[in-house]
């Protein structure tokens, strides 16, 4: 039995999301079946699209146009300028997507970028972003952000906090949870039966035996030792400046970094246009392009769809891995 299609949520209509959805369909067609949840009148003028009544119609519809599961949204799309009246519709698209994957009518969820301030102003959206909202909707208290490409998979243990707050936030419990969810995600979603993990230190040279900081000795190493005793294949704590060259990357399936930039700088340097944001720890597959709404170029037809295309391809492979 073939898998249901992927649900692609519209994201911020004023951003590049509508253009990316069309560009992804032009490349993928029905090879990676997906449908857009959004307002058809927000698509770029002249877009061939087919309104569908249910997700299972997406594959056939994709032969002639972008499949769209229509969602009412007030007002026209104004590229570059979010409309407060459309914020509730953006949130509703995400909720509809979660409902469809939860019911098995969609095999995975791929989300186009949202504008958090616009959602806060127009819909009272109180979540830091997609990831936290999806965790709330699916009753998943612990989720992990992974950035993935063909060249690297990396997980930041701490994410959107000031660098000065990282040492206090980096508790043994947090690190243990991040590593366990990453390991489980590699097995379930990437089909890697015995994942190899590499864990970075926090300080330069991984603390150099305590001379440059003691977090490696007092926090990181004890967690890794305990997990290794349970059978996990983990290297570290490693000096982050030697973890991301080609020979080092060949020795692990995913890297765990201690803070946001330690994780995102290497993957964005290696594969800026094709990186994919993956949320691990949810009861369904979720991916997203690794960029924002790009309001400054919306409507100009110059947005690069590579990350969205890769996000849909990866979501399809992950859904197949889950079966």
From TrEMBL:
Q: PANTHER family from the entry?
A: 4-HYDROXYTHREONINE-4-PHOSPHATE DEHYDROGENASE, D-THREONATE 4-PHOSPHATE DEHYDROGENASE
One GO cellular component term, please give it. cytoplasm
Q: Name one GO molecular function term.
A: 4-hydroxythreonine-4-phosphate dehydrogenase activity
Stated family: Belongs to the PdxA family.
Task: Cite the entry's keywords alphabetically.
Answer: Cobalt, Cytoplasm, Magnesium, Metal-binding, NAD, NADP, Oxidoreductase, Pyridoxine biosynthesis, Zinc
Q: Which residues bind substrate?
A: 130-131, 268, 277, 286
**UniProt name for this protein:** 4-hydroxythreonine-4-phosphate dehydrogenase
Give the first-level EC class, as a single word. oxidoreductase
Q: Fetch the HAMAP family from UniProt.
A: PdxA (MF_00536)
